[in-house]
Structures are given as structure tokens and as C-alpha cells.
What we know:
Largest sheet: 6 strands, antiparallel
Shape: globular
Helix content: 40-55%
Number of helices: 9
Structural class: alpha+beta
Radius of gyration: 19 Å
Amino acid sequence: MLERAMVLLDLFTPQHPRQTITELALGSELPVPTVFRICRELTRLGALERGDDGRFQIGLRVWEIGSRAPRAHGLRSVAMPFMEDLHEITGQNVQLVVRDHLEAVYLERLSSHDAVGLVGRAGGRLPLHASSGGLVLLAHAPHGVFDDVVAAGLRALTPFTITEEPTLRSLLAEIRRTDIVIARQYLNLGTLAIASPIRRSRDVVAALSVVVPLDTGSATLVPALQAASRAISRGIS
């Protein structure tokens, strides 16, 4: 029951935030009566909400529970003041990212109406090899994670995404050496993404990134980003 409920919850995406019983049954390959029973129970518990048109959407109860996750809550509370400072400097996108298995999870994003458009969103997931924050986390992940990422396939999200294993391996070594990555259009066309690691003691537990228009210079952004990352690291250690 619990596993099937998670399958249904995973079907709600930014592209499909509201779905009918029939759509959920098709996506999950579960019988309609089963989906109906699970959705009815999830609605009773507040994990789903049902609109007047009969469509379901994720309920606030899910967000409330998720916000209590220790890995997210403590890190986010320490990081937010420094993220706000970076956002003030750039006027663009500032992101806090952690790794979950083979994906980068965006815990928080600060943006503005005129900021460059992005694929990811707060609470969303992206491949480690394609995003600046994901690359930082992959560079400091156990060796087996790299092997699994390569085995899963280095999918191209733009023509500039790194899709060759030797090139990716070389970039990760450079990230470990410099504590910075500058990704030009790896994930979103027309963007420059810069990320650096956040550490608890010696372990890299998150990444902080800024995403700006491609023609923005990185000379002033890199020191500001690294200073913010170090300050957050001190705050969580």
C-alpha cells in the first residue's frame, strides 16, 4: 500500500501538477479501483487535495512533513541569509542543492521576475552530470556513484551538456582541485552556472550555485559564491 502510494505521488510533476484518477491509473499501471482507494485515503490524510473538477493535486501536508527533514531544514535555515545576499548581488538565481542517489535535489531557490529561465525548480530533481550544483556533488561523491551515473547514461539536456565519460572525469577532478565549477549552457541555453561545495567538517553535504545570463562575467561572482559557501559551511559544522 505504502509503495503504491509513493508511486502515485511521484506522478505529480511540474508538467502534470493536477491529475484525474484515470490519468494516475495509466501512469502507475495500477487498476482504477486501487488508485481510487489510495487517493481517497491520501486525501483524508492531507497528502492529496481534490478540486471541484475531480482532479487531484499534492496536498500541503506533504510539504509540511518534507520541510521537517533534518538534512534540509537545518541546512536551509543557515544558508538563507547568505543566499539572500547573493541574490541581492546578482538579481538572478541562487540555489541550494543536495544529492539524493543519482540526482541533484533543489532544496531552495531565490529568483526574480526578470531572472534567466531555468529547467529546475525548488523541490525538483535533475541529473548530477548536467547541473552545476550536481557536478560539485558528483565530484565529491563516493566512487561508485560516478560509475552508476555513467552506467545510467549521460543524457544531453542541451548541445553543451557533457556526455563523454573522460571529459566528465576530467572536469570532476578539476572541481575537486579548485572548489568551483563554471558551467556554460550545460543545463539551460543562454545561462552561466557557477557552483561551489558546502562542507560539514570535511564532507561535502551540499552545493551553492548561481545561474546568470551567459554574457555575465564570472570574475566577481566566483569570490562572492565561495565566500558564501564557506560561511554556510562554518554555520553547519
